[in-house]
Structures are given as C-alpha cells and as structure tokens.
User: Which sequence fits this backbone?
C-alpha cells in the first residue's frame, strides 16, 4: 500500500484520515498540529501511543522539501535556498532579515508558464505546480535551517501563484490556521503577473492578504513584449482590476516595477506611470533588475531608481526602491536552479 502524505492536508482532511485509522477527531487535530508546527517524525509525537505511532509509520508519511544548497550573505543575513523535491525537481527560496522580522520568499511552481522575457524562472519553461505541502514545507525547512522564526511570507519566488490557485489557497489556509503556524494574513503577500480573474477571486477569498502586481511597463505594446500575459490581460483592464481590488478590500495594492535600463526607466515611462497611477490606493516598489545573463537585459542604476522614486513621490504616488539584499549571492530567482542544472 502506498503511504499517504499528510503534509498539505487541511485539518478536516487530517480528521478524516484519523477516522480511517479508527481514531477520534481530536487525534486528527493533534496530528495536524504536530505537522503544521514543524515536526517531521512520528516518533517525536509524544502524546501518541507507541501503537498509534507505528500505525502512522505504516500508513502515512510526511514528505516535503529538502534544502540541497544554501548561499549565505553573512553581511545582511540573507540566505538563498535550493529546495529539492521528491521527484528530483528543485525550486528556490530566499530568507531575508528586516527590522520588523524575518521574511521568506517562497516558490509556487517548478518553472513558470508566463514567459516574462527578463526572468530566469521562465527560461526552462513550465514543469509542474507545487502541492500545498511543498509550499508549506519551504517555510518549515527554512526555519529549521536558520533556527529562526519566519514572521512574513511573500509568494514571489519561482512560478505564477494564480496559475496554481487551488494549492495556493490551501497553503494560505493551512499556514494561517490557529492549529498550525497561525500566521496573520496581513503578514503574507502574494505577487501576480496580472491574471485578472484570479485577482477578483483572491479579493473575495483573501481580503486580508496583501496583493502585489508586477507591472514593469504601462504601454500595451512594450508590456506585451516583456510580459506575454499582457496580450490576454492588457494594462488598462489590469489597472481597473487593481482599483476594484482596492475598493473591495479597502487595502492598498503594491505594484512591482522591475527597472530595466533603457527599456522601462525612460522619461516617457515615468510620465506614463504618473498619468496612469495617480489617485490609486497603491505603493510602487521599484526593483533594479537582477541581471540574468541569458536574457541580455541590464538593471537601471540605483541612482536612476532613486530619481524615479522621487519623481513619483512628487506626483503623489508612494514609491520606494527595494533595499538591496544578498548582494553576495546570485540575485535573481531561478538562477540558483539554473546553475544547479548546469553543473549536474
Ligand atoms: N509570477 C509572479 C511572482 C513571481 S516573480 C509575478 O510575476 O509577480 C516576483 C517578481 O520578481 C515579479 O515582479 C517579477 O517580475 C520579478 N522579477 C523576475 N525576474 C527578475 C529579475 N531578474 N530581477 C528583478 N526582478 C525580477
């Protein structure tokens, strides 16, 4: 009999699994707590009898991710992980230290379908969705590795989270559950390339989770070149959906704007931002591009990024330049995995 993987189960699923073993609902709840607070061995579940532990051993497993490699920037504490999956695939994550706590960037898919021309994750195409358990375990594996608590999660690693909506949803429910990590929804941010129908659904399902939308250009022709998703969900419709989101949730939306030299940091690009974003309940996060050799793009200078932030600020649009973290390690997400594949 194949063992059933308990990682990624909701509390209801865990209770019905316990029932199959002839156990009462509270046992299912206990099991859920152990697993979703980081325990990975049945032998460590001390409130279970020996007999129950060996029955669990026979029927179930707790299968998640394993950290294969780590790059550590000792100056600022940033760590980049390569997570190995059971089927031999790998994804990445980044642990960052901030004044307000520790943050982890997690991946939602192996590869990505979006095909953004500047992004390393798109280079190898799409392989598969991550399960809810594989997303959750990135958090626990990072806590174990660092010995630190993770207080914030950003779903901004490899993949398009809204292209794996059901598993994302399950992940958010589990990580937020009070019997699990009990992480506040306000401490979680999900980033999308702009899949409009999913943005609407997300506003209904998770009005307290922060939403970030990757813009990168505000003219359809240019944005479609950088981000093929724009052909299906063009700029003005995307901005309308963003406004609707802010109205529906009462929350500010974050726009990510990766600055690429000569491509989207020109005067006209800034003018278009001022014109189109004015009056919106938003915050613009300017991110100088991390160079990915294969794509041929270069990041804007820090100076240009700061000029743009200032200009937007004067126009009444809140904008900041993302603090540079992990300058000693390969910046762009997807690069560690590419390097690993090349050296294999
Ligand atoms: N698919 C989602 C989430 C993953 S990408 C999305 O598109 O939002 C997270 C962010 O990193 C996006 O804003 C993406 O455009 C940006 N990004 C991708 N490659 C980058 C690079 N080389 N340098 C800087 N930012 C990059």
Assistant:
């Amino acid at each position: 009999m194949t063992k059933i993987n308990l990682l990624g189960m909701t509390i209801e699923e865990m209770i019905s699994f316990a029932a199959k073993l002839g156990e009462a609902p509270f046992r299912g709840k206990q099991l859920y707590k152990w697993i979703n607070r980081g325990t990975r061995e049945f032998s460590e579940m001390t409130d279970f009898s020996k007999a129950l532990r060996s029955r669990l051993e026979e029927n179930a497993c707790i299968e998640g991710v394993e950290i294969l490699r780590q790059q550590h920037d000792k100056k600022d504490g940033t760590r980049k992980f390569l997570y190995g999956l059971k089927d031999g695939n790998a994804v990445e994550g980044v642990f960052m230290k901030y004044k307000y706590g520790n943050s982890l960037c997690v991946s939602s898919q192996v590869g990505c379908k979006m095909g953004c021309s500047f992004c390393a994750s798109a280079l190898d195409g799409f392989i598969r969705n991550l399960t809810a358990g594989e997303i959750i375990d990135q958090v626990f594996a990072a806590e174990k590795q660092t010995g630190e608590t993770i207080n914030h999660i950003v779903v901004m690693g490899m993949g398009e989270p809204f292209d794996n909506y059901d598993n994302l949803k399950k992940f958010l429910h589990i990580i937020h559950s009070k019997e699990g990590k009990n992480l506040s929804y306000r401490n979680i941010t999900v980033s999308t390339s702009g899949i409009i129908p999913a943005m609407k659904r997300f506003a209904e399902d998770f009005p307290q989770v922060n939403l970030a939308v990757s813009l990168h250009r505000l003219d359809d022709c240019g944005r479609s070149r950088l981000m093929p998703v724009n052909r299906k969900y063009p700029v003005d419709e995307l901005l309308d959906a963003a406004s609707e989101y802010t109205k529906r949730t009462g929350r500010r939306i974050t726009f990510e704007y990766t600055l690429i030299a000569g491509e989207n940091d020109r005067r006209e690009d800034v003018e278009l931002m001022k014109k189109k974003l004015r009056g919106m309940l938003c915050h613009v996060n300017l991110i100088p591009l991390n160079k990915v050799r294969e794509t041929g793009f270069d990041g804007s200078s820090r100076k240009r990024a700061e000029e743009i932030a200032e200009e937007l600020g004067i126009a009444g649009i809140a904008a900041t330049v993302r603090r540079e973290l992990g300058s000693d390690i390969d910046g762009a997400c997807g690069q560690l995995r590419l390097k690993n594949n090349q050296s294999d």
Notes: The first strand starts at residue 4 and ends at 5. Residues 33 and 178 are 9 Å apart (CA to CA). The two ends are 33 Å apart (CA to CA). The mean pLDDT is 94.
